[in-house]
Specification:
The complex is a heterodimer of chains A (about 475) and B (about 400).
Chain A (H helix, E strand, L loop, with lengths): L1 E5 L9 E7 L6 E2 L4 E6 L4 E5 L4 E6 L6 E3 L3 E6 L15 H4 L37 H4 L19 H6 L9 H10 L17 H10 L11 H4 L19 H14 L4 E9 L1 H12 L10 H15 L5 E4 L4 E4 L5 E3 L1 E3 L2 E3 L2 E2 L7 H16 L5 H4 L4 E4 L19 E5 L3 E7 L2 E15 L5 H16 L9
Parallel strand pairs in A: 12-16, 16-17
Antiparallel strand pairs in A: 1-8, 2-4, 2-7, 3-6, 4-5, 6-8, 9-19, 10-11, 12-15, 13-14, 17-19, 18-19
Helix pairs in contact in A: 9-10, 9-12
Chain B lengths: L53 H26 L13 H8 L7 E3 L5 H6 L4 H6 L11 H4 L10 H16 L5 E6 L6 H13 L3 E7 L2 E2 L2 E2 H4 L4 H6 L5 E5 L3 H16 L5 E6 L18 H8 L3 H11 L5 H23 L19 H15 L15
Helix pairs in contact in B: 1-2, 1-12, 1-13, 2-10, 6-7
Classes of the chains: A alpha+beta (about 475), B alpha/beta (about 400).
Chain lengths: ~475, ~400
């Protein structure tokens, strides 16, 4: 017998979750509680244990799909005798939920599965009659739903019409009937007091045959979603804005429209730095350390900051103060499986090159494995983004909110370049520096960038700076 | 992140030999079995578990394994949509079984929502444990059948109930004890503090059993208290014990000490069982967002079940027979609970009116009447000709 497993509400009151990955494939035999999928909700990434022992016959949703709670995600072939499943087979709340589309399906944890077509809950009308309604007042006294009827006769017509349109007035049984029949109550004219829609109004509407097709189905929006979004021929894919993406967007918008950004570029012949790197790697004292151009750039930034401290500061709008940091928490933008994060190295200015190298390696590893702790993500004072790893030369980075500067490090390229009065093939890199013009003037920003460039062009220049 | 419980309780700091009463701060952790499973002697607390035979030790192991299996199965049931929510107790099995097994039948338990291990020791029906979490009932069982109140969701409120019940025991002249279970976060709540004031004032026979699992949802215990939780009791004049909550024997010994004091009119005792919540706060929580993965690893090394298993192995008791028996038992409870869960009938809408008052109530009866007529209106063709509710 085929059993369907519907996506449950994995948190409290969630309406959807994203399938991250399937741990099983069609045809696989699974045991009870074997992990079959990884799912991300708005609250957590969780593993789904199989509710049945049997053979997977279908996976209904692709990884990366956001699935509404209550929708089938996987089917199983389970033995009929029930022996494969320790629990006696009786219809569970989820399994008995009728397959009828648009039907209210209790899936045990409430009714979150039914997605209303409008995002916000409609305001409930407290008074059934909008204008004066002596008609309604008297007869309702003995009816069970009398509590629903509150009249406010003082209300004037002008107030009523000025109000935004509310849901057409009807009672819950009528709304259920309408839903069962697939009727949009907004299209139905109510004949009762104050435009109240009755059962008959709904039936007449259906029987009338002149219903506009577009207004027919309540669930028009959810149905616009194809069962399998990856299916060929689809011209666009819609992904809800949430999680890290949502957070990143909010932070970027806040930063871009709060801090006036200036971006400067400097292209540097970094051949001496690359030579230095090669020598350091060969040095036994650095055995076991992972040294990259980024390590040297980070060190150069830390040295240049000592001479140009205004790039390591914060604009405190609330207290109308400029906060000058006397330490550097160096943020490194990292692309992780869950999106962009900027963990930072605490007190990076106090680290030696070896310490910095270790910290960078550790930070990258924990970001990749998703083990970055909340503490590592907060308290940064300036950031570096290594766009060079993607083969990019330059860009106009947006400041990490609360910081005064961010440096984008471009790719190291072999380029024909002026060298000792002639053109030679040199290793060249472009630096892009964005800074907050409230805190940093062009002069300071330029000096800082020139210092970083000078160190990379000739590491020995550090001797003149410290 | 550092946690100070390194597991050398019986031998570090002030060392054994102090009275079980009030100590200064930085007190030692009472421990009878090391994380490696070595039984260490403790002159003060050894006598309290002297009667624990090999057979009983095996059965403590069996209970802890069964409790963990119940917890894992319920977590799976939640992920499968069969339970709305579940508060895992993973890692706290020694605290709950050690305390639960120390109780007498006529003692009365007032717990939070996480003490499913205690409920198991009280002999609760496995289906009753999950009734509430499936959303099928407002409470799972009749408290008097197992002398354990149904779990309290309001943080710390049960400590007041326990203290009140203990004052009732005093009035009855009985020698039973009220035992209340709560977490580290609850010690910051007004209710718990008020309960301790009353318990001390009336010298009520109540045991305050605090499982310090280090996390009040996402709030670490060190932010809530700059002293050890056991030392908070000192301010109320309540003697306290700080015990390794992952050591089932030590927990049992400490609980017995506290129960004995209460039975003899010695008043309340506060026990801080130092343990760790290895899972999320509930199935709706993601601890990786606020908790260092290394911390979990540190505590996994102190796993309460692995510890008692090592002890059994050292004593030559961990036979294949025993392991098979424990495995069978765990499988059986998981099967029983799953069946109870998936076969549980859905409640009827009108069931909501049951058990509100013990005697008839005209106001409630009227509401029930209205509601039943409202329900009837969904399927009543007779009402087809009228706009429902208006006539």
């Amino acid at each position: 017998m085929i059993k369907e497993f519907r996506l449950p509400d994995l948190g409290e009151g969630l309406t959807e979750s994203e399938i991250l990955s399937w741990k099983v494939g069609v045809g696989d035999t699974v045991s009870l509680n074997q992990v079959i999928a990884e799912v991300e909700t708005a609250k957590a990434v969780v593993e789904l244990p199989s509710p049945f022992a049997g053979v997977i016959t279908a996976l209904h949703e692709q990884p990366g799909t956001v699935v509404e709670v209550g929708k089938p995600i996987v089917s199983f072939e389970v033995p009929d005798d029930g022996a494969a499943r320790p629990a006696a087979e009786t219809p569970t709340a989820a399994a008995t939920a009728a397959a009828g589309a648009g039907k209210r399906e209790p899936n045990l944890v409430g009714y979150g599965a039914v997605v209303e077509s409008s995002g916000r809950p409609a305001r409930r009308a407290r008074n059934l009659t909008v204008v004066e309604a002596p008609v309604v007042e008297a007869p309702v006294v003995e009816t069970p739903v009398v509590e629903l009827v509150e009249t406010r006769p003082v209300e004037t017509k002008s107030v009523a019409t000025a109000r935004p349109a509310e849901r057409p007035r009807s009672t819950p049984p009528v709304r259920k009937l309408a839903k069962d029949l697939g009727v949009d109550l907004a299209a139905v004219a109510g004949t009762g007091p104050g435009g109240l829609i009755s059962r008959d109004d709904v039936r007449n509407f259906v029987g009338g045959g002149d219903l506009p097709a577009a207004a027919h189905h309540l669930s028009a929006v959810p149905e616009a979603w194809p069962e399998e979004p990856s299916a060929g021929g689809q011209r666009e894919t819609r992904t809800p804005i949430k999680g890290v993406r949502k957070f990143t967007a909010a932070a970027m918008v806040a930063s871009a429209f709060t801090a006036p950004h200036v971006t400067e570029f400097l292209t540097v012949d970094v051949t001496p730095t690359m030579d230095l790197l090669a020598r350091l790697k060969a040095n036994r004292a650095f055995a076991g350390y992972k040294l990259t151009p980024l390590t040297i750039v980070a060190k150069a930034v830390l040295i240049a900051l000592r001479r140009n401290p205004s790039l390591n500061s914060r604009w405190d709008e609330n207290s109308q103060e400029i906060v000058q940091y006397n330490y550097v928490n160096l943020g490194i933008a990292a692309a992780t499986p869950r999106g962009l994060t900027v963990p930072n190295i605490k007190d990076a200015d106090a680290l030696t090159l070896m310490g910095l190298s270790e910290a960078l390696t550790g930070l990258t590893e924990s970001a990749r494995s998703g083990k970055t702790t909340p503490a590592e993500l907060s308290g940064g004072t300036i950031s570096i983004t290594n766009i060079g790893v993607f083969g990019i030369d330059a860009g106009t980075p947006i400041l990490n909110p609360g910081e005064a500067a961010i440096l984008a490090v471009g790719a190291v390229r072999n380029m024909p370049w002026e060298y000792q009065g002639e053109v030679a093939l040199r290793q060249v890199m472009t630096l892009s520096l964005s800074f907050d013009h409230r805190l940093v003037d062009g002069e300071q920003g330029s000096r800082f960038l020139a210092d970083v460039g000078a160190i990379l062009a000739e590491p020995g220049m550090v001797l003149t700076m410290v | 992140m550092s946690t100070d419980e390194t597991g050398h309780g019986g031998t570090n700091a002030e060392g054994p030999g102090n009275s079980a009463g009030i100590h200064g701060s930085g007190r030692y952790l009472i421990q009878l079995v090391t994380p490696a499973g070595e039984r260490i002697s403790h002159p003060e607390f050894d006598p309290w578990v002297q009667d624990i035979s090999d057979e009983q030790l095996c059965s403590l192991y069996e209970d802890m394994a069964a409790v963990r299996r119940i917890d894992v199965e319920a977590t799976a049931l939640q992920r499968q949509g069969e339970l709305a929510l579940w508060p895992p107790l993973l890692g706290q099995e020694a605290s709950q079984v050690g305390a639960g097994r120390a109780l007498r039948e006529d003692d009365f338990v007032f717990s939070s929502y996480r003490e499913n291990g205690v409920a198991y020791c009280r002999g609760v029906d496995l289906t009753d444990i999950i009734r509430v979490w499936r959303g099928n009932a407002s409470s799972g069982w009749d408290p008097y059948t197992i002398n354990m109140a149904t779990p309290q969701i309001i943080i710390g409120a049960q400590t007041l109930h326990a203290t009140g019940y203990a004052m009732g025991i005093q009035n009855d002249g009985a020698d039973s004890v009220a035992v209340t279970f709560f977490g580290d976060g609850a010690t910051s709540e007004g209710d718990v503090n008020e309960a301790m004031v009353f318990a001390a004032s009336f010298q009520a026979p109540v045991v305050f059993f605090c499982q310090n699992n280090h996390w009040a949802i996402s709030e670490p215990v060190r932010l809530q208290s700059h002293i050890q939780l056991a030392d908070r009791a000192t301010g109320f004049g309540i003697p306290s014990l700080r015990v390794d909550g992952n050591d089932v024997l030590a927990v049992m010994a400490a609980t017995r000490v506290a129960l004995d004091r209460a039975r003899r009119g010695g008043g309340p005792t506060f026990i801080e069982a130092v343990t760790y919540r290895m899972g999320p706060h509930t199935t709706a929580d993601d601890p990786t967002r606020y908790r260092d993965a290394n911390e979990l690893e540190d505590w996994a090394a102190k796993d309460p079940i692995a510890r008692v298993k090592s002890l059994l192995e050292r004593k030559g008791l961990l036979t294949e027979n025993l392991q098979q028996h424990v495995q069978d038992k765990a499988d059986a409870v998981a099967r029983e609970m799953r069946a109870g869960c998936t076969n549980m009938p859905d409640p009827e809408p009108l069931d909501i009116f049951k058990h509100v008052y013990s005697s008839p109530n005209s106001w409630l009866d009227r509401q029930q009447d209205h509601y039943s007529r409202y329900l009837a209106s969904f399927g009543d063709p007779a009402g087809a000709n009228s706009p429902e509710g208006a006539h």
